[in-house]
Amino acid sequence: MKKNLLGISLITMTGLYVLLSAVIILITILTKQPVIYGIGISAILLIIQFLISPFFTDLSMKWFYKAKFDYEIPAYLKKFIEEVCQKENMKYPRIGFIDDGAPNAFTYGHTKNNARIVITRGILELLTEDEVKAVIAHELGHAVHYDMLFMTVAQLVPLVLYGIYTLLMKTNKNNSGSNKNDGAIIALIAYILYVISNYIVLWLSRTREYYADSYSIETTKNPNSLASALVKVGYGLTTSNSTGKNEAPRSIALGIFDSNASKSLVVSSYENGEASKDNIKQAMKWEQWNIWAKWYELHSTHPLISKRLLYISNRSEEFKQKPYIEFDLTKDESYVDDFIVELIINFLPPIMFVVGLIITSVLANKDKINLSILSMGITLLLTLFTSFIKFNRRHPDKDYKDNTIRDLLSEVKVSNITAIPCQLEGKVIGRGDPGYVFNEDMTIQDKTGIMFLDYNQPLFVVNKLFAIFKNKDNIDKSIKVKGWYRRSPVPYVEIKSYEIDGKVKKVYTYPLAKAFYVIGFIISIAIIIGSFI
């Protein structure tokens, strides 16, 4: 397994650095400038960042997440880590503990000998012993495979290419000589290669996630435990009574799932002590069938949870286990029409604005001032109108039905553009970003699962004051939430209002946005009328 991963990584690295070298040589030939010095400085800065980042991350964990690195983890887990470390001839990692009920785990550091693994209370409360071992084995796999080091080296390429692009664009503005066209061409090439290399780096990261899963499987000899842990941590499907003997007392970071999707949590009801496979399949439908899921995966550091579940399930027979899940649901429609409609709704406002701006500028240059003003008013009106259509699709203000998290996760026709109005009732078990003192969001648990709640007031400072002084008081309290359910790919609910301790609290972003549209419509109509005067 390690040889395969090393081969894939070396081939990918070679390809990335060939792209970078080609751009450097091209710049050197056309500009006759020793660009390599600038590249060298960038590389040195990245190396310095890589060397010091774990220590700054340590401080961030202690200051902002209240992580404890002297926490005494359960004996079974300590013994498991010691056995893996002895087998891999690596030092025992520093273990950080965040006292937050939302399940999360990640690792960072330089190499396998100075790795840090951070876990939350939710990991120990919601997962069984075997599941906890599987998650920690995944994190140890990142350390054993030197993923932090490889990904840092890989990320240097798009970083430098983007630096070349921005540098040449700035230089071109001050350059009126014959080299200006050459610089513009190279800048365009650098930007295109930057985009390509970024996707290559993301693909490499997703590949290494599969290998971390594979390491966990081969270390624990228990693929089904990793699969069930992913269902709980990656989707959110757990159970309200999954606590017990594992309950805890009250850089580049590589986690069990994408840090950008840390809102994604799944909890399902259990049947005879096992997760309901039908609930899991229902939760998998969105990733398997909705076209947006493929788009989001392309831009993610981690594969889709459903793909990882199927990969793990395919390996179960190697260890004499029945495959954890077989996705055998039949798709009754293509969902392509919904995707096309959402694409149009999403991109129509900026298209209207750009086209209108061009027409307005052309008319102004031809001294057709009244027509230019008319065009500006119509552009503003159409841009606001199409933007309002998108706003209403994201915030349908009617039919707020009582839902469970399991029900919401089974919805396929939902995205960042299309929302479902809903009401949830449960308990706040932690912050949206587990342990982070400046995070205003919350995590709710009902009898069927866990869901991220997006708290977003109009003013940034209000959100942060709420995070610092109010949010911690909501933890472990019952909550009733009214809002809009979306996936992007993370399943989450944007809060419209919520009730805690018998008091209803409102989020004012929605009514303020509606007021903005009303004012905008009035202004645009006034401009149109004014063009005829």
Element-by-element helix/strand order: HHHEEEHHHHHEEEHHHHHEHEEEHHEEEH
Low-confidence stretches: 238-250, 261-273
Helix content: 55-70%
Overall, the morphology is globular
Radius of gyration: 26 Å
Q: How do the strands line up in the largest sheet?
A: 8-9-10-12-11
| Strand composition percent | 5-15%
Number of domains: 2
Q: How confident overall, as mean pLDDT?
A: 85
Q: Total strand count, please?
A: 13
Alpha-beta classification: alpha+beta
Major beta-sheet overview:
5 strands, mixed, barrel
Secondary structure elements and their pairing?
Elements (H helix, E strand, L loop, with lengths): L1 H30 L4 H29 L10 H14 L5 E5 L6 E4 L7 E5 H6 L2 H16 L2 H27 L5 H42 L2 H13 L18 E2 L14 E2 L2 E2 L1 H13 L1 H8 L6 H10 L21 H30 L3 H26 L6 E2 L2 H5 L10 E12 L10 E4 L4 E5 L5 H10 L1 H4 L3 E10 L3 E10 L2 E4 L2 H22 L3
Parallel strand pairs: 1-3, 7-8, 10-12
Antiparallel strand pairs: 2-3, 2-4, 5-6, 8-9, 8-11, 9-10, 11-12, 12-13
Helix pairs in contact: 1-6, 1-7, 2-6, 3-5, 5-7, 5-8, 6-7, 8-11, 9-10, 12-13, 13-17
In short:
The chain is of the alpha+beta class. The chain is 57% helix and 13% strand.
Notes on the protein architecture:
The protein is α+β, with helices and mostly antiparallel strands and 533 residues long. It has two domains: 241 residues, no CATH class; 197 residues, OB fold (Dihydrolipoamide Acetyltransferase, E2P) (Beta Barrel). It is built from 17 helices and 13 strands. Strands 8-9-10-12-11 form a five-stranded mixed barrel. The chain has a four-stranded mixed beta sheet with strand order 1-3-2-4, sandwiched between helices. Strands 5-6 form a two-stranded antiparallel sheet. Strand 7, helix 14 and strand 8 form a beta-alpha-beta unit. Helix 5 crosses helix 7. It is globular, with a radius of gyration of 26 Å. About 5% of the residues have low confidence.
